[in-house]
Amino acid sequence: MRRLVPLVSLVLVMSAVADAQTRVTPDSTPVAHPNPSGAPPQTGTPTTPLAPVDAPADYALGGGDTIQIDVPDLADEFTPDKTFRIDGGGDLGLPIIGHVQASGLTVAQLEEAIKVKLKRIVKDPDVVITVMAFGSQPVSVLGSVTNPGIVQIGGRKNLFEVLSMAGGLSDDAGYKVTITRDLKWGALPLANAHIDDTGQFSVGWVKIKDLLNFSNIGENILILPGDKIAVPTSELVYAVGNVTKPGGFLLNQHESLSALQVVSLAEGFDRTAAPQRAKILRVVTGSPNRSEIPVNLKALMQGKTPDFQLQPDDILFVPNSRAKSAGYDALTAVTAATGALIYTAR
Q1: Based on the number of CB atoms within 10 Å of its own CB, is 256 exposed (0-12), middle (13-18) or buried (19 or more)?
Q2: Cβ distance 337 to 302 under 8 Å?
Q3: How crowded is residue 18: how many other Cβ atoms within 10 Å of its Cβ?
Q4: Which candidate, 177, 175, 201, places its Cα nearest to that of 188?
Q5: For the chain, counts of helices (H) and of strands (E)
Q6: Which pLDDT tens digit goes with each residue over 280-312?
């Protein structure tokens, strides 16, 4: 049963705080297809409400956070969408009760603070608060991006948008993005997500190629405060010896390159090459030496043998037709790869 203050007093109180109200209209901007330029999305007339975000119980509210406040006993006084934004100073302006300092409080603590103020108007008020969007919160974006460091996200941002806020990918970016999330926010919504050795973080990764092509929208996940995003530098494969353009080739968004792709990137062989005696020099785990894998590139080019994939850091060495020994070839290849020019494989 509602026990209300006299009508005249209530009207005066509502008038005094009317200017302090900070209701917001829900943002209907979709998150599945971010603006590739990284520019702030254009907002028009909203048509759909925000969806709640799953904030941990100990999450401290801050400036810019958008919350929904449901007070069943005052359904008419609290607008139908019941949505309010905490301002930059951490202040929350509400109907009837005026200002509440919300910054630094958990949802449960803010619910209690509002209940205390509402008890002047309603006996045993019920207050339910739901976090609808986060304000400016830090996210680490490190590795091969244009502007690595801390990015302050405001509102709902997905992975693509946060990478855009960091200036986008560098030319030497690898083929995947790794995301690390504190388990207090729950596990990452990715099929490959796993808990790290400390038992405190969920770790998963997304292929950059899929992200850029929007081929798997579900992996363009919502980024939460405190997430760590890492873009490793691309690995390389090398083509050296008697090829037209010797050097190292960045894999970029590719996980590997085939032998034919590497020969193509190296623009084929020179006139003195012996492609039938080519070899791959591959790193041996735990050893300073490389294994030698014979490759008949001549037969491969003629379609007589199947193509195969080179692993990261492999060296494809094409000897001279006058080469005298395998040992000399291998030494020459490793030395050449060390000082090779680097090219992109895009």
Answers
A1: middle
A2: no
A3: 10
A4: 201
A5: 7, 21
A6: 999 998 888 899 999 999 999 999 999 999 999
